[in-house]
């Protein structure tokens, strides 16, 4: 009876509490979730962006001729024989889910008195849409990110999306200038710690990427030059001397699920045990041979480990770091190149214990080389430097980003080496494209592949698995989108991943 009395009292108490808290209010929709503060969503969105970019960057590292796989695994015919379908390479779903997070921040920042997040969220939105276009071509943009009000969004023309991204970045800069980042919320910004000036420089640098990506498209010169001059007139400049990265020492932890995503995938686990996948990616023979031939061994030793991989000392090869100990793997080779006798991905990307590096989304080297291309193509734009000065600074920043001494890059001035010595290079635009390709090694395979599709520089070997010279120029719309938005996917026509080029991929 005593137990029954206690239970009865507890029930009455709970019922009274429930009534007071309106837990029994039948007008409350149980399917409606409470909203989150935009600053929390923004931090998680940045972390998710880094995680989402790992896989397309890996694919880009292969298809740009920088990485291949070791023969410790059965050869991936999906990647190296290009036998894939719309069930493969589905980056679409993760990117759009991530974009909805940024749109939530944009839509709700005002009501939470966090207006300082709108500009950065718009910049990240532009970055993700740029990558979606560079993967798929036409994508939902104007009709996307509207929730239940647009369950089957129409697709926008890819060139029009590119133009809208420039406008979005302009809006972002206006937002950032109007709203100082509140000091209490700088921890939510795991990119620049609330530094609005750097966010604006990032926006301008991303604009240059978008503009230069379409520089070979007929009829775009006037538009591109106008937009470049607008960037210069804005006055904030570009990212210099450092790279744009997500996370870093104050965010990533030596805990399962909280490591830098690259370190976690190809490097080591939280205890320091080497991942099995560390044996998968290998540096290509083409990249190693090119760097040896051009006396670029300082960067080579940062891009790759000598045969035998990382030794007992973190960041140092097990074997002597001399050029003869660096052996690349032919692209797509299926035998004869085991992990023990080939060069693994090097210390510019993976060092045991360095689980808390930032995930790089844009390098200062890329920015400088985009400026070099802009000045070389359009000498009359108002950029203050010369094509040569930007080119040489691009190589210096690549040295720095890869972990070599930036000052050592000066050795190429007057060296007479084609594609390294600006004056001696027979084709300046080809030299710039070549240096972009090297600068992206290990740090941004996605951009390396995009630049290769744009220019065809360098002339990388075909996969050993493929008898002709066909190469993927895009990926396919995923079957998840075909299932939920079939009419709009069908409206894009027949997609052939060998021949259906993106608008900026003119040849």
TrEMBL record:
The keyword GTP-binding does not apply. The lineage of its organism: Bacteria, Pseudomonadati, Bacteroidota, Cytophagia, Cytophagales. It holds the Pfam family SusD-like_2. Transmembrane segments: none annotated. Residues 1-20 form the signal peptide. InterPro entries: SusD-like_2, TPR-like_helical_dom_sf. Keywords: Signal. This is SusD/RagB family nutrient-binding outer membrane lipoprotein. It comes from Emticicia oligotrophica (strain DSM 17448 / CIP 109782 / MTCC 6937 / GPTSA100-15).
């Amino acid at each position: 009876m005593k137990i029954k009395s206690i239970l009865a009292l507890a029930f009455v108490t709970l019922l009274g509490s429930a009534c007071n808290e309106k837990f029994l209010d039948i007008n409350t929709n149980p399917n409606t979730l409470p909203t989150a503060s935009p600053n929390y969503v923004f931090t998680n969105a940045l972390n998710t962006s880094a995680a989402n970019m790992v896989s397309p960057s890996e694919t880009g590292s292969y298809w740009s001729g920088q990485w291949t796989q070791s023969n410790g695994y059965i050869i991936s015919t999906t990647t190296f024989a290009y036998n894939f379908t719309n069930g493969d390479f589905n980056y679409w779903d993760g990117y759009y889910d991530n974009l909805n997070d940024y749109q939530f921040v944009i839509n709700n920042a005002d009501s939470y008195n966090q207006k300082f997040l709108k500009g950065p969220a718009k910049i990240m939105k532009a970055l993700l849409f740029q990558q979606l276009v560079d993967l798929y071509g036409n994508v939902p943009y104007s009709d996307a990110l509207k929730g239940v009000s647009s369950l089957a969004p129409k697709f926008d023309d890819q060139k029009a999306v590119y133009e809208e991204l420039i406008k979005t970045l302009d809006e972002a800069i206006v937002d950032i200038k109007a709203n100082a980042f509140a000091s209490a919320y700088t921890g939510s910004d795991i990119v620049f710690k609330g530094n609005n000036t750097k966010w604006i420089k990032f926006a301008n640098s991303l604009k240059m990427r978008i503009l230069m990506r379409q520089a070979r498209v007929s009829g775009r010169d006037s538009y591109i030059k106008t937009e470049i001059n607008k960037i210069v007139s804005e006055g904030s400049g570009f990212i210099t001397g450092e790279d744009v990265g997500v996370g870093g020492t104050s965010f990533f932890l030596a805990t399962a699920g909280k490591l830098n995503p690259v370190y976690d995938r190809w490097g080591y686990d939280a205890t320091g045990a080497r991942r099995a996948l560390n044996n998968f990616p290998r540096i290509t023979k083409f990249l190693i041979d090119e760097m040896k031939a051009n006396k670029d061994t300082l960067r080579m030793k940062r891009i790759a480990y000598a045969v035998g991989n990382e030794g007992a000392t973190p960041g140092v090869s097990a074997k002597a770091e001399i050029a003869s100990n660096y052996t690349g793997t032919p692209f797509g080779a299926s035998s004869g190149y085991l992990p023990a006798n080939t060069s693994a991905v090097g210390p510019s990307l993976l060092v045991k214990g360095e689980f808390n590096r930032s995930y790089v989304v844009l390098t200062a080297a890329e920015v400088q080389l985009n400026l070099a291309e802009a000045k070389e193509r359009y000498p009359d734009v108002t950029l203050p430097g010369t094509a040569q000065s930007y080119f040489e600074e691009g190589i210096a920043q690549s040295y720095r980003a890869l972990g070599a001494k930036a000052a050592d890059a000066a050795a190429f001035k007057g060296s007479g080496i084609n594609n390294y010595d600006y004056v001696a290079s027979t084709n300046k635009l080809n030299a710039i494209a070549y240096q972009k390709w090297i600068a992206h090694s290990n740090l941004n395979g996605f951009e390396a592949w995009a630049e290769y599709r744009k220019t065809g520089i360098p002339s990388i070997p075909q996969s050993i698995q493929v008898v002709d010279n066909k190469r993927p120029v895009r990926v396919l719309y995923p079957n998840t989108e075909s299932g939920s938005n079939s009419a709009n996917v069908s409206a894009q026509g027949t997609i052939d991943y060998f021949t259906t080029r993106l608008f900026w991929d003119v040849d």
